[in-house]
Amino acid sequence: MSDGKGKGVIALKKLGVEVQKGDHYSCQKTQQSVTKYNSNGQTSSYQSEEKAAVVTKIGKSSTTTVKVFQRRVEETIHHKSLPPVKDKITHFSHRHDLHRYEVQKRDKINCNICEAEILDKAWSCESCKFFIHKSCESIPQKIKHKSHLRDTLILRSSTNYACGEFICDACCDSDKGFHYHCSPCKFDIHVACAGLPSAVNHPMHKNPLILCYDFPVRSSETVKCKACDMKINKKGWAYYNDDSKFIAHIYCAVNKKKKDSILAIQKRLQSLQMK
What we know:
Elements: H1 3-14, E1 24-37, E2 43-58, E3 62-68, E4 73-79, E5 88-89, E6 98-102, E7 109-110, E8 117-118, E9 121-125, E10 130-133, E11 142-143, E12 153-156, E13 166-167, E14 174-175, E15 179-182, E16 187-190, H2 191-194, E17 199-202, E18 205-212, E19 238-241, E20 246-248, H3 250-253, H4 262-271
Antiparallel strand pairs: 1-2, 2-3, 3-4, 5-6, 6-9, 7-8, 9-10, 11-12, 12-15, 13-14, 15-16, 17-18, 18-19, 19-20
Organism: Camellia sinensis var. sinensis
Protein name: DC1 domain-containing protein
Keywords: Repeat
């Protein structure tokens, strides 16, 4: 901060105008027309020039401009025009419109797409008991995933397998709902599994664990998770550190009790989106 600006900010504080981080500060000269009346009732006009310290505060719904002159303070508030609030949407996976829904604490509703609990706002078809996070509305329908680079994965709301279920190639759990699918290869992964981070930190291990799509331990013996001491399915993914040989189930590594934010999952999926 320059000396001139520093003195200006101090002067503003004395007048009760706080300059905070993110505010735009400048010094400006303003001109205004002044009309002067003499004793004979005649008028004359001239331009008066004043210096003012100007602070612009940008908020979520408005922008406030504060002009501080030598003897007065002028404040102007410009309200931003907000986009219209949507009351309903259509989603490719559901035959009915989805309406806004405010989730109450007693509801205990899980999202049909990512399966994580919905804690605040959602889109819903109450008659069908279909609920999704507002953020899950824009999860991509086509992605290119590092675990299956040969083909594009398509988001599906159900499976065509005769048994009515799919087995996730990541966590090895069976399920019936939303997942990413490759028909030629019969490859399936949960939405949340598709959005797993490529590396994580774990409280039981000082160095990052890397997500492995092919089982990293070459052994015929049973391999147990270092976090829960339970057997790891070698057909699925695991988090692993090659130096220490520390291995963990994918949801032991990311701590399922503090399940990854759906916004973080969505952001990673958006980076995989096929145009």
